């Protein structure tokens, strides 16, 4: 299967069957188990380092090629994440939301129309994606602020006050970060969340169809792969997701697999999709990174 089809299915651009929420990932067939066992060709260390250095460039090229036409607007978010719908209530205090990895605004702009009493921050790794958001006619500086940020090394506090955000959303974002840097990224998020604020996440789950379709030579490490365009994707188990959030100072409120079958009649594809969805709450006043700075900084 070529890159276009894999990425299109990553984007969810096809009809889906009924959704099943599960505590365990889907069961692999004997053929699928063998395919994973046979995939022993690891991307060379030289190429891995190059991919990490050029991560920003590769995502910027992605948005140069696809502009605003790749992803559909996400109208399912208040149904799946009821925490967001609380902003509909007539409350004197605005709900403050940060969308990490905003892309071209497919998550934020539908919610700006739906949730009147909400202020959005939004950031993305790609400067080009950020500019697309700013150029959108729906962009209103009175209701939202978008900025470029490398979550793994640039403090969100340059743009957002510490302990000021109610909800952070991460929709297919954490999977694009190198596994060694995921905890640092979550600690960065932890620093701007209010006490008892939460992260709402949906991402790729282990044994997703797209994971099993990678050809040999695209595996970087366990569950971590590179696409033909140089962008990368990690496929999470719920144990892995729980572990990294716990290490960054969060407690788990929910963490489950989403199982469904995507059907693309035109392409003749019946693809078992696996996503992971969770809610993690800030329970400690300071993150592990803050503790490190206080002890050694």
From TrEMBL:
Record text on subunit structure and interactions: Monomer. Interacts with SARS1/SerRS; interaction is mediated via tRNA(Ser) and is required for N(3)-methylcytidine methylation.
Full protein name: tRNA N(3)-methylcytidine methyltransferase
InterPro entries, per the entry: Methyltransf_12 (IPR013217), METTL2/6/8-like (IPR026113), SAM-dependent_MTases_sf (IPR029063)
Catalytic activity: cytidine(32) in tRNA(Ser) + S-adenosyl-L-methionine = N(3)-methylcytidine(32) in tRNA(Ser) + S-adenosyl-L-homocysteine + H(+)
Function as written in the Swiss-Prot or TrEMBL entry: S-adenosyl-L-methionine-dependent methyltransferase that mediates N(3)-methylcytidine modification of residue 32 of the tRNA anticodon loop of tRNA(Ser), including tRNA(Ser)(UGA) and tRNA(Ser)(GCU). Interaction with SARS1/SerRS is required for N(3)-methylcytidine methylation.
Family: Belongs to the methyltransferase superfamily. METL family.
EC primary class: transferase
Annotated GO CC locations: cytoplasm; nucleus
Alphabetic keyword roster: Cytoplasm, Methyltransferase, Nucleus, Transferase, tRNA processing
GO molecular function, one term: tRNA (cytidine-3-)-methyltransferase activity
Domain Methyltransferase type span(s) in chain numbering: 98-198
Main subcellular location of this protein, as a coarse class: cytoplasm
GO BP term (any one): tRNA methylation
Cellular localization per UniProt: Cytoplasm; Nucleus
E.C. designation(s): 2.1.1.-
CDD domains (alphabetical): AdoMet_MTases
